[in-house]
Amino acid sequence: MTGSIRPCSPQDIPRVADLFSRVFLQGRHGTSSTLVHSLEETFFANPSFDEEIRSNVYEEEGSVRGFIGITPLRIDAEGVKIRCAIGGSLMVDPDIKDPLIGARLLRSFSSGPQSLTFSETANRTSHAMWTRSGARFLPVHSLDFVRILKPAGFALENLAEQLAALRVARPVTHLIDRFASGLIGSDLMPKAQRGVRSTPVAREDIPGVIMALMQNYALRPDWRESELDWLIERAWEKPKYGKIHAAVVENAAGRRFGFYLAYLMKRGKARLMHVVAGPKDSAAVLEAAARDAFEAGCIAVEGRADPRVLPALIMQRCLLFRRTSTIAQSRLPRVIDNIDAGDAFIGGLAGETWSPLHGGEW
Fold first, then answer.
1. What is the mean pLDDT of the chain?
2. Do 153 and 280 lie in a common domain?
3. Among 134, 167, 222, 311, which residue has the least CB neighbours within 10 Å?
4. Is the model's pLDDT at 1 over the cut of 80?
5. Cα–Cα distance measured from residue 206 to residue 213, given in angstroms and rounded to the nearest whole number
6. CA-CA distance, 329 to 119, in Å (whole number)?
7. Are 122 and 329 in contact (CB under 8 A)?
8. DSSP for 101-155, written as a single string
9. pLDDT of 266
10. Do residue 93 and residue 157 come from a single domain?
11. CA 107 to CA 230: how far, in whole Å?
């Protein structure tokens, strides 16, 4: 029997959670109340919720067999107010053999009333579907980066993902990295920068810092401060990623020119969730973040690239690769041009990865 696609309702969320568990978690833990709550918050409790831009489900014989998660975002595009739809969590019941269900869900997403359609987590299959429908693939925004801070520790932790017993060698790798930093520190290790300092930012002060710094972008969210505060609260606890750390980067005179939000995992990676910096300040902000991560005991820094930070990532000897694709589509060509040029505050807090669906524990 052919099913139909319709807007998702809050009553669908328990069934969506069951599907999420089957598709993304391979049913390892069943469906937890935490997962149900995270889905409800992400797609219905968001203060930016827009009745016309909402998630869709594929229903067949009364059962939810497919889902695409959609969150709205108001955008200020060089003074013009537009609506954006951010898509992710595309899933189809693995027992369904029809390969077109995913394409139909994507089409339901892109045909909404928004002026900009955006996703930063398109896999190989959805990437192909998107680009066939006329969306633009953004290569630089699709790059993940890793900057290795402690080579021996980095090698050990990656091997230990396959054989946990290897972690008994941590004291040895710690000594190797201390010795190596003395030999090649000028080339590999993050440096203290003259006239530049990073200062931790209290949780309650973060929205004000971001709202001020994002004025440097031609395309930026049209948030109320309370909306941004809600997003940060949801991004605050991600147990899989480590302890959250927010810092503002400023010069000796106290002028703030950058900000970053990261999760720090001692003996693990620091995960940069969002970096805010002007085109000429990206290198200093990334270096400050790497320095803070190094001092916190992290073995590497990872995050997502964009055109504004790419030159600094190359000069800082980061490894670059693609996990998922960033895709955008708009009936306003100038909007896509701004994103492609790196003059857009989008992704991260203005994307998908703030959600507890990324980095939560079920």
1. 91
2. yes
3. 134
4. no
5. 11
6. 9
7. no
8. HHHHHHHHHHTSS-SEEEEEEE-HHHHHHHHHTTPEE-TGGGEEEEEES-HHHHH
9. 83
10. no
11. 29
What pLDDT digit, counting tens, does each position of 173-220 carry? 888 888 777 665 556 678 778 889 999 999 999 999 999 999 999 999
Number of domains into which the chain is organized: 2
Give the model's pLDDT for residue 29: 58
Residue 193: other Cβ atoms inside 10 A: 15
Q: Which residues pair with 262 in a beta bridge?
A: 245, 272
**Residue 185 CB-density burial (10 A; 0-12 exposed, 13-18 middle, 19+ buried):** exposed
Listed range (5-14, 102-111, 164-173) with the worst mean pLDDT: 164-173
Q: What is the pLDDT of residue 168?
A: 86
Pull the structure tokens for residue 270. Answer: 């620091």
User: Helix, strand or coil for residue 184?
Assistant: helix
CB 72 within 8 A of CB 49: yes
Which structure tokens are listed for 231? 């997003």
Q: How far is CA 272 from CA 114, 211, 246, in A?
A: 29, 19, 10
